[in-house]
Automatic annotation (TrEMBL):
<feature type="domain" description="HPt">
    <location>
        <begin position="16"/>
        <end position="102"/>
    </location>
</feature>
<protein>
    <submittedName>
        <fullName>Hpt protein</fullName>
    </submittedName>
</protein>
<dbReference type="Pfam" id="PF01627">
    <property type="entry name" value="Hpt"/>
</dbReference>
<dbReference type="InterPro" id="IPR036641">
    <property type="entry name" value="HPT_dom_sf"/>
</dbReference>
<feature type="modified residue" description="Phosphohistidine">
    <location>
        <position position="55"/>
    </location>
</feature>
<dbReference type="GO" id="GO:0000160">
    <property type="term" value="P:phosphorelay signal transduction system"/>
</dbReference>
<keyword id="KW-0597">Phosphoprotein</keyword>
<dbReference type="GO" id="GO:0004672">
    <property type="term" value="F:protein kinase activity"/>
</dbReference>
<dbReference type="InterPro" id="IPR008207">
    <property type="entry name" value="Sig_transdc_His_kin_Hpt_dom"/>
</dbReference>
Length: 102
């Protein structure tokens, strides 16, 4: 998946190798930090934080060209906005294994 993201960053944004590496690293940091926010939000049953973190995750994934995962993050965001915690948890549980490489 790393190669796929780097190719996307190079092709879509026209970046050189150094810039691709930097942007990839920032994207990975964002995903890791956001996963931590999501875990904390679930522990607190904080639907607004779930929505906010889901929104951030969605953006990071879309920017990296991971559209399928970005759509799952969108569903997580929307479930959080609606206060549907069980739905948000189910989406997160489906999304989390795909993000283990971060």
């Amino acid at each position: 998946m790393e190669q796929r993201v780097k190719e996307h960053l190079c092709q879509v944004y026209g970046l050189g190798l150094d810039d691709v590496e930097e942007l990839y690293g920032l994207g990975c940091q964002t995903v890791v930090a956001t996963l931590g926010r999501l875990e904390a939000a679930f522990l607190r049953s904080d639907a607004q934080e779930l929505a906010d973190a889901g929104h951030m995750l969605k953006g990071a994934l879309f920017n990296m060209g991971l559209l399928e995962l970005g759509e799952l993050a969108r569903a997580l965001e929307l479930a959080g906005k609606a206060g549907r915690m069980e739905e948000a948890r189910a989406v997160y549980d489906a999304l989390r294994p795909a993000l283990k490489f971060f």
